[in-house]
């Protein structure tokens, strides 16, 4: 896997996808010096600052950074987006399966129009899916859709034929990747979202104006600016000075350092899972007992409090904390230094190296703190800090290491299991579950149409991952954002703000 592809996986994390409770935004208004303060007031310009990078085009195949995705979500709509409590319909009005969940019928919402005034049709949806499927990474999400057999039943109804049963189709497939473009072509810039691009690029940022065909009452503002500010501290200064209205992804310390702006911490649903990848294919972590020793050697609350400045929650080595369906009986392992020491001594584990980079805040600090905690359990741990700009340059080499630091965008358990585990997983870094037995159990759970039975099967898989998996998911880092005071809320999906009213 190339670094660019890997970064797109991290950025879109398709992942499932996650959505935080809410963020906020404010206006640029001459009458108040550039920042609207009155709740409910019609806004002029919403200014968002986010991380970005030159050379990214406005298409899912090229977008990697938050800034670029913020523009994509402003211009285009998805059939389904991620929500606080699961999948939410956006362009779709409803989605219904046949008896065995091999065919899903999706109806579009009434009156949806593109910015050129033409109606959004079922053919546009299918053309968009065919375009998305061409991309090696995003296409993985749609792999179970037989696009050749799928069809438009009428102008507003799409019938998706699947190659295998997917009772989780709405959340785990459509909720990850279902953007719709006029004629299936993202290069024409014609979407059904609240804005259209006026000017800009991924190096300097963009200016957008209102889409006249989008319901005005749902728009946050008449105009939108997305500014590219790569440095998190610089984004903090920008929102604190009033240069921008919303600054996305700030350091955890922004909760204390912001003065005029407000720090907003949405919570665990808008979070990243920070983890140490214990390679299940090489020594010493190919031994499940050694993996267990590593998991109980750590004080996860201390890691969260110190590495994340308390802005997070301890992890239990499975995805989905904060979303419905998370099995509450699965708790973060309690630290047991003596038992960890006993196992390490029995297995002859005396030392290892954690490779890390501060690609996401908390990764390096977490590795340093974990090293000291492992030493208390009798293992000497060296922390190898690498350049974050090249950390994922050679994923093949990284995945051969015994242990390294990584992260993922949090998502509901049901879709998170297929994202992190199994032989077909987009983000399986540890190798856990890459066998026919696990694949079969995961496929059986995805095919189960009874919600209760499917939830039980997913919980059983989660318990197995918790016990034996290679993801030492030590903490969920809650997103910290900066906003102006007294501004309307807006949702976040896939860790990207959506410029529409909640």
From TrEMBL:
PROSITE patterns: PROKAR_LIPOPROTEIN, SBP_BACTERIAL_5. Residues 90-392 form the Solute-binding protein family domain. It comes from the Bacteria. Coiled coil: none annotated. Keywords: Signal. It is a lipid-anchor. Residues 1-24 form the signal peptide. It holds the Pfam family SBP_bac_5. The keyword Electron transport does not apply. It is found in: Cell membrane. The keyword Signal applies. Belongs to the bacterial solute-binding protein 5 family. This is ABC transporter substrate-binding protein. It comes from Corynebacterium hansenii.
């Amino acid at each position: 896997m190339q670094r660019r592809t890997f970064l797109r996986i991290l950025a879109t994390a398709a992942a499932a996808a996650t959505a935080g409770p809410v963020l906020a935004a404010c206006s640029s208004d001459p009458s108040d010096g550039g920042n609207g303060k009155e709740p409910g007031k019609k806004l002029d310009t919403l200014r968002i600052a986010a991380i970005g990078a030159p050379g990214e085009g406005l298409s899912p195949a090229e977008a990697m950074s938050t800034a670029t995705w913020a523009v994509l979500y402003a211009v285009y709509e998805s059939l389904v987006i991620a929500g606080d409590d699961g999948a939410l319909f956006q362009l779709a009005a409803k989605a219904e399966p046949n008896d065995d969940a091999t065919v899903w019928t999706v109806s579009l919402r009434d009156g949806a129009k593109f910015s050129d005034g033409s109606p959004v049709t079922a053919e546009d949806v299918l053309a968009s899916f065919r375009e998305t499927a061409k991309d090696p990474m995003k296409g993985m999400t749609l792999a179970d859709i037989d696009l050749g057999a799928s069809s438009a039943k009428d102008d507003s109804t799409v019938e998706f034929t699947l190659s295998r049963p997917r009772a989780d189709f709405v959340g785990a497939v459509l909720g990850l990747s279902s953007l719709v473009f006029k004629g299936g072509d993202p290069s024409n810039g014609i979407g059904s979202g609240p804005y259209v691009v006026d000017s800009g690029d991924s190096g300097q940022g963009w200016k957008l104006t209102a889409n006249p065909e989008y319901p005005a009452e749902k728009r946050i503002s008449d105009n939108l600016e997305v500014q590219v500010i790569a440095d998190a501290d610089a984004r903090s200064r920008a929102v604190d000075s009033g240069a921008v209205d919303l600054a996305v992804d700030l350091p955890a310390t922004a909760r204390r350092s912001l003065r005029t702006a407000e720090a907003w911490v949405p919570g665990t649903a808008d979070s990243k899972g920070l983890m140490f990848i214990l390679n299940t294919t090489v020594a010493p972590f190919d031994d499940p007992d050694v993996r267990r020793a590593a998991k109980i050697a750590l004080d996860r609350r201390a890691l969260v409090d110190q590495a994340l400045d308390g802005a997070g929650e301890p992890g239990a080595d499975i995805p989905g904390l904060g979303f419905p369906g998370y099995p509450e009986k699965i708790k973060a392992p309690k630290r047991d230094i003596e038992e960890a020491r006993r196992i390490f001594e029995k297995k002859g584990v005396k030392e290892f190296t954690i490779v890390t980079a501060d690609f996401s805040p908390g990764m390096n600090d977490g590795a340093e703190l974990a090293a000291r905690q492992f030493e208390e359990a009798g293992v000497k741990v060296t922390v190898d800090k690498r350049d974050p700009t090249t950390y994922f340059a050679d994923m093949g080499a990284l995945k051969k290491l015994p242990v390294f630091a990584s992260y993922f965008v949090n998502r509901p358990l049901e879709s998170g299991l297929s994202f992190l585990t199994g032989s077909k997983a987009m983000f399986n870094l540890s190798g856990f579950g890459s066998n026919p037995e696990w694949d079969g159990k995961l496929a059986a759970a995805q095919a189960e149409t009874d919600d209760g039975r499917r939830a039980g099967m997913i919980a059983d898989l989660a318990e197995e991952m918790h016990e034996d998996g290679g993801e030492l998911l030590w903490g969920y880092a809650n997103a910290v954002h900066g906003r102006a005071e007294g501004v309307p809320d807006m949702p976040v999906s896939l860790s990207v703000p959506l410029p529409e009213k909640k």
